[in-house]
Amino acid sequence: MNWLPQTISGRVYTAVLLILAPAPFVFEWINQPFYLDLLSRALILAIAVVSLNLILGFGGMVSLGHAAYIGIGAYSVGIPSYYDYYNGWLHLGLALSISAAFAFVTGAISLRTKGVYFIMITMAFSQMVYFTFLSLEEYGADDGLVIYSRSEFPEWLSMDGSTSLYYWIFGLLLLSLLFVRRLVHARFGRVIVGSKFNEQRMQALGFNTYRYRLVCYMISAMMCSLAGMLLGNFTGFISPDMIGWARSGELIFMVIIGGAGTFFGPLVGTIAFVLLEEFLSLITVYWHLIFGVMLVALVLFGKGGIDGWLSLLDRKRAGNG
Amino acid sequence: MAEQLLKIHQLNKHFGGIVATDNVNLAVEQGLIHAIIGPNGAGKTTLIAQLSGQIKPDSGEIEFGGHSITGYNTARRAREGLARSFQITSVVMPMTLLQNVMLAVQGTSGHSFRFWAPVREDREMAAAAMESLAAVGLDDRADRIAANVSHGEQRQLEVAMALAMKPRMLLLDEPMAGMGKEEGAMMVDILNSLKGDITILLVEHDMDAVFSLADRLSVLVNGHIIATDTVDNIRNNQEVQKAYLGDGHA
Question: Per 3-state DSSP, what percentage of chain A is helix, strand, and coil (rounded to 5)?
Protein backbone atom coordinates (compact mmCIF):
# COMPACT_ATOMS: atom_id res chain seq x y z
CA MET A 1 0.00 0.00 0.00
CA ASN A 2 1.74 3.08 -1.24
CA TRP A 3 -0.09 5.67 0.80
CA LEU A 4 1.35 4.21 3.99
CA PRO A 5 4.48 5.93 5.32
CA GLN A 6 7.45 3.79 4.40
CA THR A 7 9.37 4.02 7.66
CA ILE A 8 8.47 2.62 11.07
CA SER A 9 8.86 6.04 12.65
CA GLY A 10 6.61 7.53 9.98
CA ARG A 11 3.95 4.93 10.71
CA VAL A 12 4.15 5.41 14.45
CA TYR A 13 3.78 9.19 14.13
CA THR A 14 0.89 8.87 11.68
CA ALA A 15 -0.79 6.48 14.11
CA VAL A 16 -0.27 8.92 16.99
CA LEU A 17 -1.91 11.73 15.02
CA LEU A 18 -4.77 9.45 13.92
CA ILE A 19 -5.37 8.47 17.55
CA LEU A 20 -5.21 12.08 18.76
CA ALA A 21 -7.60 13.45 16.13
CA PRO A 22 -10.87 11.82 17.33
CA ALA A 23 -9.82 11.58 21.00
CA PRO A 24 -12.63 13.75 22.50
CA PHE A 25 -15.32 11.60 20.91
CA VAL A 26 -13.68 8.38 21.99
CA PHE A 27 -13.29 9.52 25.57
CA GLU A 28 -16.86 10.77 25.61
CA TRP A 29 -18.02 7.43 24.27
CA ILE A 30 -16.21 5.47 26.96
CA ASN A 31 -17.22 8.16 29.46
CA GLN A 32 -13.73 9.05 30.67
CA PRO A 33 -13.54 12.86 30.66
CA PHE A 34 -10.46 12.67 32.86
CA TYR A 35 -8.40 11.26 30.02
CA LEU A 36 -9.39 14.11 27.77
CA ASP A 37 -8.15 16.50 30.43
CA LEU A 38 -4.90 14.61 30.69
CA LEU A 39 -4.43 14.58 26.94
CA SER A 40 -5.31 18.28 26.57
CA ARG A 41 -2.69 19.14 29.16
CA ALA A 42 -0.13 16.93 27.42
CA LEU A 43 -0.76 18.51 24.03
CA ILE A 44 -0.53 22.05 25.45
CA LEU A 45 2.86 21.15 26.88
CA ALA A 46 3.73 19.54 23.55
CA ILE A 47 3.35 22.92 21.82
CA ALA A 48 5.79 24.41 24.32
CA VAL A 49 8.14 21.47 23.79
CA VAL A 50 7.94 21.76 20.00
CA SER A 51 8.87 25.43 20.37
CA LEU A 52 11.76 24.63 22.70
CA ASN A 53 12.97 21.92 20.33
CA LEU A 54 13.24 24.53 17.58
CA ILE A 55 15.96 26.41 19.43
CA LEU A 56 17.38 23.53 21.49
CA GLY A 57 17.25 20.64 19.04
CA PHE A 58 17.72 22.41 15.73
CA GLY A 59 19.52 25.55 16.88
CA GLY A 60 21.67 24.18 19.72
CA MET A 61 20.46 26.91 22.10
CA VAL A 62 19.73 25.17 25.39
CA SER A 63 17.30 27.49 27.14
CA LEU A 64 16.45 26.73 30.74
CA GLY A 65 13.93 29.53 30.81
CA HIS A 66 11.23 28.59 28.38
CA ALA A 67 8.56 28.28 31.08
CA ALA A 68 8.66 32.08 31.30
CA TYR A 69 6.91 32.23 27.94
CA ILE A 70 4.22 29.84 29.14
CA GLY A 71 3.77 32.32 31.99
CA ILE A 72 3.60 35.32 29.68
CA GLY A 73 0.99 33.54 27.56
CA ALA A 74 -1.07 32.47 30.57
CA TYR A 75 -1.02 35.89 32.23
CA SER A 76 -1.94 37.45 28.88
CA VAL A 77 -5.24 35.67 29.38
CA GLY A 78 -5.43 36.06 33.17
CA ILE A 79 -4.72 39.75 33.67
CA PRO A 80 -7.09 41.13 30.96
CA SER A 81 -9.76 38.69 32.19
CA TYR A 82 -9.30 40.11 35.70
CA TYR A 83 -10.45 43.44 34.23
CA ASP A 84 -13.27 41.71 32.31
CA TYR A 85 -11.55 41.89 28.93
CA TYR A 86 -12.31 38.49 27.47
CA ASN A 87 -11.62 39.21 23.80
CA GLY A 88 -9.61 36.25 22.55
CA TRP A 89 -7.79 38.21 19.85
CA LEU A 90 -6.65 40.64 22.54
CA HIS A 91 -5.30 37.73 24.61
CA LEU A 92 -3.63 36.19 21.60
CA GLY A 93 -2.14 39.52 20.51
CA LEU A 94 -0.81 40.28 23.98
CA ALA A 95 0.72 36.82 24.36
CA LEU A 96 2.49 36.99 21.01
CA SER A 97 3.68 40.60 21.24
CA ILE A 98 4.84 40.54 24.87
CA SER A 99 6.66 37.25 24.43
CA ALA A 100 8.30 38.57 21.25
CA ALA A 101 9.40 41.75 23.01
CA PHE A 102 10.67 39.90 26.07
CA ALA A 103 12.49 37.38 23.88
CA PHE A 104 14.02 40.18 21.86
CA VAL A 105 15.49 41.93 24.89
CA THR A 106 16.58 38.85 26.85
CA GLY A 107 17.67 36.96 23.73
CA ALA A 108 19.80 39.88 22.58
CA ILE A 109 21.71 39.61 25.85
CA SER A 110 21.65 35.82 26.33
CA LEU A 111 22.82 35.02 22.81
CA ARG A 112 26.05 36.84 23.45
CA THR A 113 26.94 33.90 25.68
CA LYS A 114 27.44 30.22 24.89
CA GLY A 115 27.00 26.84 26.54
CA VAL A 116 26.53 26.79 30.29
CA TYR A 117 26.40 30.59 30.43
CA PHE A 118 23.50 30.63 28.02
CA ILE A 119 21.68 28.05 30.15
CA MET A 120 22.24 30.09 33.30
CA ILE A 121 21.29 33.44 31.85
CA THR A 122 18.06 32.18 30.26
CA MET A 123 17.19 30.63 33.61
CA ALA A 124 17.94 33.90 35.39
CA PHE A 125 15.66 35.86 33.08
CA SER A 126 12.85 33.36 33.50
CA GLN A 127 13.21 33.51 37.28
CA MET A 128 12.83 37.28 36.94
CA VAL A 129 9.45 36.67 35.31
CA TYR A 130 8.59 34.14 38.00
CA PHE A 131 9.37 36.54 40.85
CA THR A 132 7.61 39.38 39.08
CA PHE A 133 4.36 37.42 38.95
CA LEU A 134 5.01 36.23 42.50
CA SER A 135 5.17 39.81 43.70
CA LEU A 136 2.06 41.08 41.93
CA GLU A 137 -0.36 41.14 44.89
CA GLU A 138 -3.09 42.57 42.69
CA TYR A 139 -3.05 39.45 40.53
CA GLY A 140 -2.99 36.95 43.36
CA ALA A 141 0.78 36.69 43.86
CA ASP A 142 1.58 33.13 44.95
CA ASP A 143 -2.12 32.31 45.44
CA GLY A 144 -2.61 32.61 41.71
CA LEU A 145 -5.40 34.10 39.69
CA VAL A 146 -8.72 32.50 38.77
CA ILE A 147 -9.89 32.96 35.18
CA TYR A 148 -13.67 32.80 35.26
CA SER A 149 -14.32 32.54 31.55
CA ARG A 150 -12.42 31.42 28.48
CA SER A 151 -11.06 33.75 25.82
CA GLU A 152 -13.90 34.82 23.54
CA PHE A 153 -13.64 34.08 19.86
CA PRO A 154 -16.22 34.08 17.04
CA GLU A 155 -18.76 31.26 17.24
CA TRP A 156 -16.93 28.93 14.85
CA LEU A 157 -13.67 29.35 16.78
CA SER A 158 -15.20 29.15 20.24
CA MET A 159 -13.08 27.64 23.02
CA ASP A 160 -16.04 26.85 25.25
CA GLY A 161 -16.42 23.23 26.14
CA SER A 162 -13.63 20.73 26.53
CA THR A 163 -14.04 19.36 23.00
CA SER A 164 -13.65 22.74 21.26
CA LEU A 165 -10.73 23.63 23.49
CA TYR A 166 -9.15 20.29 22.63
CA TYR A 167 -9.38 21.09 18.95
CA TRP A 168 -7.89 24.52 19.54
CA ILE A 169 -4.97 22.78 21.19
CA PHE A 170 -4.72 20.04 18.57
CA GLY A 171 -4.97 22.60 15.75
CA LEU A 172 -2.26 24.85 17.15
CA LEU A 173 -0.09 21.81 17.77
CA LEU A 174 -0.44 20.69 14.16
CA LEU A 175 0.34 24.23 12.99
CA SER A 176 3.44 24.35 15.20
CA LEU A 177 4.66 21.00 13.91
CA LEU A 178 4.08 22.06 10.30
CA PHE A 179 5.65 25.46 10.83
CA VAL A 180 8.81 24.07 12.43
CA ARG A 181 9.14 21.55 9.62
CA ARG A 182 8.84 24.20 6.92
CA LEU A 183 11.11 26.56 8.79
CA VAL A 184 13.90 24.03 9.24
CA HIS A 185 13.91 23.08 5.56
CA ALA A 186 13.77 26.70 4.42
CA ARG A 187 16.74 29.03 4.03
CA PHE A 188 16.27 30.31 7.56
CA GLY A 189 16.41 26.81 9.01
CA ARG A 190 19.58 25.92 7.11
CA VAL A 191 21.29 28.90 8.73
CA ILE A 192 20.02 27.90 12.18
CA VAL A 193 21.08 24.26 11.84
CA GLY A 194 24.42 25.22 10.27
CA SER A 195 25.10 27.62 13.15
CA LYS A 196 24.48 24.86 15.66
CA PHE A 197 27.25 22.73 14.21
CA ASN A 198 29.73 25.35 13.05
CA GLU A 199 28.95 28.95 13.82
CA GLN A 200 32.41 30.22 12.84
CA ARG A 201 32.04 28.71 9.38
CA MET A 202 28.57 30.17 8.97
CA GLN A 203 29.94 33.63 9.72
CA ALA A 204 32.74 33.12 7.23
CA LEU A 205 30.04 32.28 4.67
CA GLY A 206 28.48 35.69 5.17
CA PHE A 207 25.75 34.94 7.71
CA ASN A 208 25.26 37.25 10.65
CA THR A 209 24.46 34.25 12.84
CA TYR A 210 23.61 36.36 15.88
CA ARG A 211 20.66 37.96 14.10
CA TYR A 212 19.33 34.70 12.75
CA ARG A 213 19.58 33.05 16.15
CA LEU A 214 17.85 35.97 17.81
CA VAL A 215 14.94 35.82 15.38
CA CYS A 216 14.76 32.06 15.88
CA TYR A 217 14.68 32.57 19.65
CA MET A 218 11.83 35.07 19.26
CA ILE A 219 9.83 32.73 17.04
CA SER A 220 10.25 29.95 19.55
CA ALA A 221 9.17 32.24 22.41
CA MET A 222 6.03 33.30 20.55
CA MET A 223 5.10 29.69 19.84
CA CYS A 224 5.64 28.89 23.49
CA SER A 225 3.39 31.76 24.56
CA LEU A 226 0.59 30.12 22.57
CA ALA A 227 0.95 27.11 24.85
CA GLY A 228 0.68 29.46 27.83
CA MET A 229 -2.40 31.12 26.40
CA LEU A 230 -4.03 27.71 25.98
CA LEU A 231 -2.94 26.60 29.44
CA GLY A 232 -4.55 29.64 31.05
CA ASN A 233 -7.79 28.81 29.30
CA PHE A 234 -7.52 25.13 30.07
CA THR A 235 -6.87 25.32 33.81
CA GLY A 236 -8.91 28.46 34.44
CA PHE A 237 -6.37 29.24 37.07
CA ILE A 238 -2.84 30.52 36.80
CA SER A 239 -0.11 30.88 39.36
CA PRO A 240 3.63 31.49 39.34
CA ASP A 241 4.10 27.80 40.22
CA MET A 242 3.41 26.95 36.59
CA ILE A 243 6.50 28.76 35.39
CA GLY A 244 9.32 28.06 37.83
CA TRP A 245 12.65 26.90 36.50
CA ALA A 246 11.81 23.29 37.36
CA ARG A 247 9.10 23.46 34.70
CA SER A 248 11.67 24.72 32.20
CA GLY A 249 13.79 21.70 33.12
CA GLU A 250 10.87 19.38 32.50
CA LEU A 251 10.42 20.88 29.06
CA ILE A 252 14.05 20.06 28.27
CA PHE A 253 13.50 16.49 29.46
CA MET A 254 10.49 16.14 27.20
CA VAL A 255 12.55 17.30 24.22
CA ILE A 256 15.28 14.78 25.05
CA ILE A 257 12.91 11.86 25.72
CA GLY A 258 11.32 12.38 22.32
CA GLY A 259 14.51 13.17 20.44
CA ALA A 260 16.07 16.63 20.13
CA GLY A 261 16.24 18.01 16.63
CA THR A 262 13.53 15.74 15.24
CA PHE A 263 10.13 16.82 13.99
CA PHE A 264 7.78 14.52 15.89
CA GLY A 265 10.04 13.57 18.80
CA PRO A 266 8.86 16.47 20.99
CA LEU A 267 5.22 15.41 20.62
CA VAL A 268 5.75 11.76 21.57
CA GLY A 269 8.29 12.76 24.23
CA THR A 270 5.78 15.02 25.92
CA ILE A 271 3.00 12.45 25.79
CA ALA A 272 5.34 9.81 27.20
CA PHE A 273 6.47 12.15 29.99
CA VAL A 274 2.95 13.17 31.02
CA LEU A 275 1.56 9.62 30.89
CA LEU A 276 4.50 8.20 32.85
CA GLU A 277 4.18 10.91 35.47
CA GLU A 278 0.47 10.26 35.76
CA PHE A 279 0.53 6.48 35.97
CA LEU A 280 3.64 6.13 38.10
CA SER A 281 2.02 8.44 40.64
CA LEU A 282 -1.00 6.11 40.72
CA ILE A 283 1.17 3.10 41.49
CA THR A 284 3.26 4.44 44.34
CA VAL A 285 3.85 7.58 46.35
CA TYR A 286 7.57 7.15 45.71
CA TRP A 287 7.05 7.61 41.99
CA HIS A 288 9.47 10.53 41.80
CA LEU A 289 12.28 8.13 42.63
CA ILE A 290 11.36 5.67 39.87
CA PHE A 291 10.78 8.49 37.44
CA GLY A 292 14.14 10.03 38.26
CA VAL A 293 15.99 6.77 37.69
CA MET A 294 14.22 6.31 34.37
CA LEU A 295 15.19 9.81 33.25
CA VAL A 296 18.82 9.28 34.23
CA ALA A 297 18.90 5.96 32.36
CA LEU A 298 17.34 7.62 29.35
CA VAL A 299 19.88 10.41 29.24
CA LEU A 300 22.77 7.96 29.71
CA PHE A 301 21.72 5.19 27.32
CA GLY A 302 18.86 6.45 25.22
CA LYS A 303 20.71 8.40 22.61
CA GLY A 304 18.31 10.14 20.28
CA GLY A 305 15.27 9.47 22.46
CA ILE A 306 12.12 7.79 21.16
CA ASP A 307 12.71 9.09 17.64
CA GLY A 308 16.22 7.68 17.81
CA TRP A 309 14.93 4.21 18.75
CA LEU A 310 12.37 4.23 15.99
CA SER A 311 14.94 5.12 13.34
CA LEU A 312 17.20 2.43 14.79
CA LEU A 313 14.39 -0.05 14.05
CA ASP A 314 14.19 1.37 10.55
CA ARG A 315 17.90 0.91 9.99
CA LYS A 316 17.75 -2.68 11.30
CA ARG A 317 14.89 -3.46 8.98
CA ALA A 318 16.74 -1.91 6.04
CA GLY A 319 19.79 -3.97 7.01
CA ASN A 320 17.83 -7.23 7.00
CA GLY A 321 15.77 -6.50 3.90
CA MET B 1 50.82 48.03 -12.37
CA ALA B 2 47.57 46.15 -12.01
CA GLU B 3 44.87 47.25 -9.62
CA GLN B 4 45.47 46.44 -5.99
CA LEU B 5 42.49 44.58 -4.61
CA LEU B 6 43.65 44.24 -1.02
CA LYS B 7 45.81 46.73 0.80
CA ILE B 8 47.08 46.37 4.32
CA HIS B 9 48.52 49.43 6.07
CA GLN B 10 50.58 49.32 9.24
CA LEU B 11 48.76 46.37 10.75
CA ASN B 12 49.68 45.50 14.35
CA LYS B 13 48.46 42.84 16.74
CA HIS B 14 49.84 41.89 20.15
CA PHE B 15 48.79 39.05 22.40
CA GLY B 16 50.06 40.11 25.78
CA GLY B 17 53.78 40.48 25.30
CA ILE B 18 53.88 38.53 22.08
CA VAL B 19 53.95 40.45 18.84
CA ALA B 20 51.88 38.43 16.37
CA THR B 21 51.63 41.04 13.66
CA ASP B 22 54.33 43.66 13.46
CA ASN B 23 53.68 46.68 11.23
CA VAL B 24 52.54 44.64 8.26
CA ASN B 25 52.17 46.43 4.94
CA LEU B 26 51.00 44.39 2.00
CA ALA B 27 49.24 44.90 -1.31
CA VAL B 28 47.70 42.08 -3.29
CA GLU B 29 47.20 42.68 -6.98
CA GLN B 30 44.02 41.76 -8.78
CA GLY B 31 44.13 38.37 -10.46
CA LEU B 32 47.34 37.08 -8.90
CA ILE B 33 48.07 34.27 -6.53
CA HIS B 34 49.95 35.86 -3.69
CA ALA B 35 51.49 33.45 -1.21
CA ILE B 36 52.62 34.17 2.32
CA ILE B 37 55.30 31.88 3.64
CA GLY B 38 57.12 31.84 6.91
CA PRO B 39 58.25 29.53 9.70
CA ASN B 40 55.84 28.11 12.28
CA GLY B 41 54.62 30.77 14.65
CA ALA B 42 55.41 33.60 12.24
CA GLY B 43 51.84 34.85 12.59
CA LYS B 44 50.39 33.71 9.27
CA THR B 45 47.12 32.45 10.66
CA THR B 46 46.76 35.52 12.89
CA LEU B 47 47.17 37.67 9.81
CA ILE B 48 44.51 35.71 7.89
CA ALA B 49 42.20 35.92 10.91
CA GLN B 50 42.54 39.70 10.92
CA LEU B 51 41.83 39.87 7.22
CA SER B 52 38.70 37.74 7.55
CA GLY B 53 37.55 39.67 10.61
CA GLN B 54 37.85 37.02 13.29
CA ILE B 55 40.47 38.96 15.20
CA LYS B 56 40.50 42.73 15.53
CA PRO B 57 43.89 44.35 14.90
CA ASP B 58 45.31 46.67 17.56
CA SER B 59 46.00 49.26 14.92
CA GLY B 60 46.23 49.61 11.17
CA GLU B 61 43.92 49.61 8.21
CA ILE B 62 42.63 46.95 5.82
CA GLU B 63 41.38 48.16 2.49
CA PHE B 64 39.47 45.91 0.13
CA GLY B 65 38.25 46.91 -3.32
CA GLY B 66 38.99 50.56 -2.68
CA HIS B 67 37.42 51.10 0.73
CA SER B 68 38.27 50.29 4.31
CA ILE B 69 36.79 47.11 5.75
CA THR B 70 38.64 47.32 9.07
CA GLY B 71 35.40 47.85 10.99
CA TYR B 72 33.41 45.11 9.25
CA ASN B 73 32.62 41.82 10.97
CA THR B 74 33.33 38.43 9.38
CA ALA B 75 29.92 38.03 7.81
CA ARG B 76 29.99 41.47 6.18
CA ARG B 77 33.48 40.92 4.77
CA ALA B 78 32.31 37.63 3.31
CA ARG B 79 29.38 39.35 1.64
CA GLU B 80 31.79 41.97 0.26
CA GLY B 81 33.54 39.16 -1.57
CA LEU B 82 36.39 38.23 0.74
CA ALA B 83 36.04 34.49 1.28
CA ARG B 84 38.23 32.29 3.41
CA SER B 85 38.94 28.63 3.94
CA PHE B 86 40.20 27.24 7.21
CA GLN B 87 43.48 25.61 8.14
CA ILE B 88 41.61 23.07 10.23
CA THR B 89 38.75 21.68 8.18
CA SER B 90 35.65 23.65 9.03
CA VAL B 91 32.51 22.46 7.31
CA VAL B 92 29.09 21.47 8.59
CA MET B 93 29.88 17.80 9.19
CA PRO B 94 26.36 16.31 9.44
CA MET B 95 25.27 17.89 6.15
CA THR B 96 25.94 16.55 2.67
CA LEU B 97 28.61 18.10 0.46
CA LEU B 98 25.89 19.66 -1.67
CA GLN B 99 24.11 21.12 1.35
CA ASN B 100 27.38 22.59 2.58
CA VAL B 101 28.07 24.28 -0.72
CA MET B 102 24.46 25.43 -1.00
CA LEU B 103 24.92 27.17 2.34
CA ALA B 104 27.84 29.02 0.80
CA VAL B 105 25.69 30.07 -2.17
CA GLN B 106 22.93 31.09 0.22
CA GLY B 107 25.25 33.21 2.32
CA THR B 108 26.03 35.56 -0.53
CA SER B 109 22.68 35.58 -2.33
CA GLY B 110 20.42 37.87 -0.36
CA HIS B 111 19.10 37.50 3.17
CA SER B 112 17.90 34.22 4.62
CA PHE B 113 14.88 35.42 6.57
CA ARG B 114 12.78 33.13 4.42
CA PHE B 115 10.74 30.77 6.48
CA TRP B 116 8.60 28.69 4.18
CA ALA B 117 10.05 27.63 0.81
CA PRO B 118 12.21 24.48 1.03
CA VAL B 119 15.83 25.01 0.04
CA ARG B 120 16.05 21.63 -1.68
CA GLU B 121 13.55 22.80 -4.30
CA ASP B 122 15.68 25.82 -5.19
CA ARG B 123 17.08 24.61 -8.52
CA GLU B 124 19.09 27.73 -9.18
CA MET B 125 20.95 27.45 -5.90
CA ALA B 126 21.58 23.73 -6.38
CA ALA B 127 22.93 24.36 -9.88
CA ALA B 128 25.32 27.04 -8.64
CA ALA B 129 26.48 24.71 -5.87
CA MET B 130 27.02 21.81 -8.26
CA GLU B 131 29.14 24.06 -10.44
CA SER B 132 31.49 24.75 -7.53
CA LEU B 133 31.59 21.09 -6.59
CA ALA B 134 32.48 20.25 -10.18
CA ALA B 135 35.27 22.84 -10.12
CA VAL B 136 37.01 20.88 -7.34
CA GLY B 137 36.02 17.48 -8.74
CA LEU B 138 33.49 16.53 -6.08
CA ASP B 139 30.33 16.63 -8.18
CA ASP B 140 30.02 12.84 -8.22
CA ARG B 141 29.96 12.74 -4.41
CA ALA B 142 27.51 15.59 -3.84
CA ASP B 143 25.12 13.57 -1.68
CA ARG B 144 27.72 12.08 0.65
CA ILE B 145 27.72 13.33 4.25
CA ALA B 146 30.69 15.63 4.86
CA ALA B 147 31.76 13.67 7.95
CA ASN B 148 32.01 10.47 5.88
CA VAL B 149 34.35 11.61 3.09
CA SER B 150 38.14 11.54 3.23
CA HIS B 151 40.22 14.32 4.72
CA GLY B 152 41.41 15.36 1.27
CA GLU B 153 37.86 15.57 0.04
CA GLN B 154 36.91 17.71 3.00
CA ARG B 155 39.74 20.07 2.07
CA GLN B 156 38.38 20.21 -1.47
CA LEU B 157 34.94 20.89 -0.03
CA GLU B 158 36.44 23.84 1.86
CA VAL B 159 37.62 25.29 -1.42
CA ALA B 160 34.31 24.54 -3.17
CA MET B 161 32.47 26.43 -0.43
CA ALA B 162 34.78 29.39 -0.76
CA LEU B 163 34.32 29.33 -4.55
CA ALA B 164 30.55 29.11 -4.28
CA MET B 165 30.54 32.48 -2.58
CA LYS B 166 31.64 33.95 -5.91
CA PRO B 167 34.33 35.87 -4.09
CA ARG B 168 36.53 38.58 -5.49
CA MET B 169 39.31 37.23 -3.35
CA LEU B 170 40.06 33.94 -1.63
CA LEU B 171 41.97 33.68 1.61
CA LEU B 172 43.28 30.14 1.71
CA ASP B 173 44.80 29.06 5.00
CA GLU B 174 46.94 26.00 4.26
CA PRO B 175 44.57 24.30 1.83
CA MET B 176 47.00 21.36 1.54
CA ALA B 177 47.26 20.79 5.30
CA GLY B 178 47.34 17.09 6.09
CA MET B 179 46.98 16.01 2.49
CA GLY B 180 48.73 13.13 0.82
CA LYS B 181 50.92 13.62 -2.27
CA GLU B 182 48.16 12.85 -4.79
CA GLU B 183 45.57 14.92 -3.00
CA GLY B 184 48.02 17.79 -2.76
CA ALA B 185 48.76 17.60 -6.48
CA MET B 186 45.05 17.66 -7.19
CA MET B 187 44.63 20.77 -5.04
CA VAL B 188 47.46 22.48 -6.93
CA ASP B 189 45.64 21.70 -10.20
CA ILE B 190 42.40 23.10 -8.81
CA LEU B 191 44.04 26.31 -7.65
CA ASN B 192 45.93 26.66 -10.91
CA SER B 193 42.64 26.43 -12.80
CA LEU B 194 41.36 29.41 -10.81
CA LYS B 195 44.38 31.53 -11.59
CA GLY B 196 43.48 34.81 -13.22
CA ASP B 197 39.78 34.57 -12.39
CA ILE B 198 40.05 34.97 -8.66
CA THR B 199 42.66 36.78 -6.63
CA ILE B 200 44.09 34.42 -4.05
CA LEU B 201 46.03 35.05 -0.88
CA LEU B 202 47.57 31.74 0.01
CA VAL B 203 49.21 30.61 3.22
CA GLU B 204 50.93 27.30 2.68
CA HIS B 205 53.73 25.19 4.12
CA ASP B 206 54.28 22.99 1.10
CA MET B 207 57.09 24.85 -0.71
CA ASP B 208 56.78 22.92 -3.96
CA ALA B 209 53.11 23.86 -4.12
CA VAL B 210 53.86 27.49 -3.32
CA PHE B 211 56.58 27.76 -5.93
CA SER B 212 54.43 26.21 -8.64
CA LEU B 213 51.37 28.34 -7.86
CA ALA B 214 52.37 31.76 -6.63
CA ASP B 215 52.91 34.86 -8.72
CA ARG B 216 54.10 36.82 -5.71
CA LEU B 217 55.62 35.76 -2.45
CA SER B 218 55.75 37.52 0.87
CA VAL B 219 57.92 36.20 3.66
CA LEU B 220 56.60 36.63 7.17
CA VAL B 221 59.04 36.25 10.06
CA ASN B 222 58.10 37.06 13.66
CA GLY B 223 55.01 38.93 12.54
CA HIS B 224 56.92 41.13 10.13
CA ILE B 225 57.05 40.92 6.35
CA ILE B 226 60.73 40.89 5.46
CA ALA B 227 60.31 40.66 1.70
CA THR B 228 57.67 40.70 -1.04
CA ASP B 229 58.71 39.82 -4.56
CA THR B 230 58.35 37.40 -7.46
CA VAL B 231 59.05 33.75 -6.76
CA ASP B 232 62.46 33.78 -8.47
CA ASN B 233 63.67 36.88 -6.70
CA ILE B 234 62.61 35.50 -3.34
CA ARG B 235 64.47 32.28 -4.02
CA ASN B 236 67.64 34.28 -4.60
CA ASN B 237 67.12 36.71 -1.74
CA GLN B 238 69.97 36.29 0.74
CA GLU B 239 68.04 37.66 3.68
CA VAL B 240 65.14 35.30 3.10
CA GLN B 241 67.40 32.33 2.79
CA LYS B 242 69.08 33.18 6.05
CA ALA B 243 65.86 33.85 7.91
CA TYR B 244 63.75 31.10 6.60
CA LEU B 245 64.71 28.76 3.83
CA GLY B 246 67.96 27.72 5.46
CA ASP B 247 71.37 27.52 3.84
CA GLY B 248 70.86 24.05 2.41
CA HIS B 249 67.83 24.99 0.38
CA ALA B 250 69.39 27.37 -2.11
Answer: 80, 0, 20
